[in-house]
């Protein structure tokens, strides 16, 4: 199956089972595994070796092995995960809406937390889709003020319904920089970029007050262009948080459960419908996350 990735400009064509975010019930346990029992409801991150637990770029297998990309993923009735990459879900947590938390949620949570803001400060969530709609929820749970920024009306409507204090469509409001500076009394204290668009990164500094923080979360294919002079003079700062690694998993999942953070998920019940999912993603009309359910 062909599918688009962020590793280059061409589709990934190696044969594999896709799907890198999952929850499911334990049906078998390796002889050296502790902390799990048959029937546990678990979620798993998609890395495949000890080095990958730092980041898959440090894979000790010689390649960035990640479930659903370069080794078999979870769009299957049964899948195998390293126990070090798994955790038991809090009791009562919905497995269907929890699956996307095991990458998108962990990434969004730590990106927002990593901005190190305090109650009442402003954060711009740039890109309010799959990760961004989770970031809005995390930011509001942390009692931050949120500006949702996107070019999609439906995603901005979603951000507003999730508690964003105001939203801006940068195409319809080309004067968004002045508007944000006025509404936030000088600019946002941080901007977390969840879009994979270089244009989104170019717009981020315009939303910030002096010495604000740009948090890198979305991964464009092309390199970013950042002003060395602006960084040198302290016009703004740049930071990143490693995406979705196992040591960050429990804190993010437990916070999500405590504060009722849920992914907006469109569910499909037949693997044959995966092609429909891919078509929606390529069309740019995707909202939230997509999931395949197995009874």
From TrEMBL:
Gene3D superfamilies for this protein: Medium-chain alcohol dehydrogenases, catalytic domain (3.90.180.10), NAD(P)-binding Rossmann-like Domain (3.40.50.720)
Alcohol dehydrogenase-like N-terminal domain: residues covered: 16-90
Cofactors demanded by this protein: Zn(2+)
Pfam families: ADH_N (PF08240), ADH_zinc_N (PF00107)
GO MF: alcohol dehydrogenase [NAD(P)+] activity; zinc ion binding
Domain Alcohol dehydrogenase-like C-terminal: 130-255
ATP-binding in keyword set: no
This protein's UniProt keywords: Metal-binding, NAD, Oxidoreductase, Zinc
Superkingdom of origin: Eukaryota
Presence of keyword NAD: yes
Family: Belongs to the zinc-containing alcohol dehydrogenase family.
Protein name: Enoyl reductase (ER) domain-containing protein
Origin species: Fusarium mangiferae (Mango malformation disease fungus)
């Amino acid at each position: 199956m062909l599918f688009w990735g962020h590793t280059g400009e061409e589709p990934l064509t190696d044969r594999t089972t896709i799907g890198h975010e999952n929850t499911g019930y334990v049906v078998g346990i390796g002889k050296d595994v502790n902390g799990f029992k048959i029937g546990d409801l678990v979620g798993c991150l998609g890395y495949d070796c000890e080095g990958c637990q730092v980041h898959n770029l440090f894979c000790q297998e010689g390649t960035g092995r990640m479930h659903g990309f370069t080794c078999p993923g979870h769009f299957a009735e049964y899948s195998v995960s390293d126990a070090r990459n798994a955790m038991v879900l809090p009791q009562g947590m919905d497995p269907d809406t929890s699956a996307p938390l095991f990458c998108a949620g962990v990434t969004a949570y730590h990106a927002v937390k990593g901005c190190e803001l305090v109650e009442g400060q402003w954060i711009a969530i740039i890109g309010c889709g799959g990760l961004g709609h989770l970031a809005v929820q995390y930011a509001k749970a942390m009692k931050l003020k949120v500006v949702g920024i996107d070019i999609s009306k439906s995603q901005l409507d979603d951000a507003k319904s999730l508690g964003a204090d105001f939203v801006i469509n940068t195409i319809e409001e080309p004067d968004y920089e002045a508007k944000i500076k006025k509404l936030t009394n000088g600019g946002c204290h941080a901007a977390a970029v969840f879009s994979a668009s270089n244009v989104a990164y170019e717009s981020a500094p315009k939303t910030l007050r002096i010495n604000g923080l740009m948090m890198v979360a979305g991964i464009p294919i092309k390199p970013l262009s950042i002003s060395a002079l602006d960084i040198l003079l302290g016009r703004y700062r740049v930071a990143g948080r490693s995406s979705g690694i196992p040591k960050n998993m429990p804190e993010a999942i437990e916070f999500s459960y405590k504060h009722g953070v849920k992914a907006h998920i469109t569910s499909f019940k037949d693997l044959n419908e995966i092609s429909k999912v891919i078509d929606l993603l390529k069309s740019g009309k995707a909202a939230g996350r997509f999931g395949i359910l197995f009874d």
